[in-house]
Amino acid sequence: MERIIETPLGNIILRPQKLEDVPFVEAYLFDSDPEFLESIGFKLSALSDRNDFRSKIENRIKNTAEGEIPVQIIAEFEGRAISHTWLEIGEGVKNAHFHIYEENLRGKGLGVLILKSALEMLMDAHKVQKLYIEPKADNVRMIRLLEKCGFKNIGPSVYKNPQVGELEATKFEVCI
Ligand SMILES: CC(C)(COP(=O)(O)OP(=O)(O)OC[C@H]1O[C@@H](n2cnc3c(N)ncnc32)[C@H](O)[C@@H]1OP(=O)(O)O)[C@@H](O)C(=O)NCCC(=O)NCCS
């Protein structure tokens, strides 16, 4: 499960998450400006301790069974993880989440290219025909990105998740 996409900055590899990716997502969640994280909907008090977070993710990757279909696609650029697309599948829940970790890689047009391809890979592998993406209602950048991807805005919603609590969101439908 791997794809190479051409972008204005060079080739990016889309692939399942590996142990070596963990420091990059950890730095994104624990070293980013807290105001920025709250502005995109994270409830910082709900984030676990940094060491717990690291071991949880590392254990999840180590315990992935052979042949298990991943729920997370990492974008690798110049040898490092720069973004993840996560498919959240639960009872009655099919949502996706998307982040570009480094500030200076945002606003360069990578979002559309990575998100569309990563969602195709995940939805195809999990045989999901329809899912939702629910950015915080004032995350204009993500909303604009989803519009640029051609996904359908189906209006205001309340997104619930332990990491964010209840979030006033704008709901987008993604179909393949
Ligand atoms: C949101 C995010 C994924 C967007 O990806 P990106 O590659 O940076 O997207 P771009 O900035 O190139 O494109 C998004 C569009 O939003 C526009 N935009 C950027 N900042 C904006 C702002 N403050 N207000 C309005 N529009 C804005 C851009 O101009 C662009 O539209 P255009 O091409 O029509 O000009 C990325 O910025 C990111 O990872 N942010 C932090 C994580 C996040 O918010 N994730 C969503 C959680 S649900």
Q: Which labels suit this protein?
A:
176 residues; alpha+beta; Aminopeptidase; 5-stranded antiparallel sheet; 3-stranded antiparallel sheet; binds coenzyme A
Please provide a written account of the structure.
- By secondary structure, the protein is an alpha+beta fold.
- The chain has a single domain (3-175), classed as Gcn5-related N-acetyltransferase (GNAT) (Aminopeptidase).
- It has 5 helices and 8 strands, in the order E-E-H-H-H-E-E-E-H-E-H-E-E.
- It has helices at residues 22-31, 34-39, 50-62, 110-126, 140-149, and strands spanning 3-7, 10-16, 72-77, 80-90, 93-100, 130-133, 152-161, 165-175.
- Strands 1-2-3-4-5 form a 5-stranded antiparallel β-sheet, sandwiched between helices. The protein has a 3-stranded antiparallel β-sheet with strand order 6-8-7.
- Strand 7 and strand 8 (165-175) form a beta hairpin.
- Helix 4 (110-126) packs across helix 5 (140-149).
- It binds coenzyme A.
- Coenzyme A binds next to strand 5, helix 4 and helix 5.
Short description:
This protein is α+β, with helices and mostly antiparallel strands and 176 residues long.
Biggest beta sheet attributes: 5 strands, antiparallel
Mean pLDDT: 94
Distinct small molecules: coenzyme A
Secondary-structure element string = EEHHHEEEHEHEE
CATH top level assignment: Alpha Beta
Class from helix and strand fractions: alpha+beta
CATH architecture, by name, is 3-Layer(aba) Sandwich
> CATH topology, what is it called?
Aminopeptidase
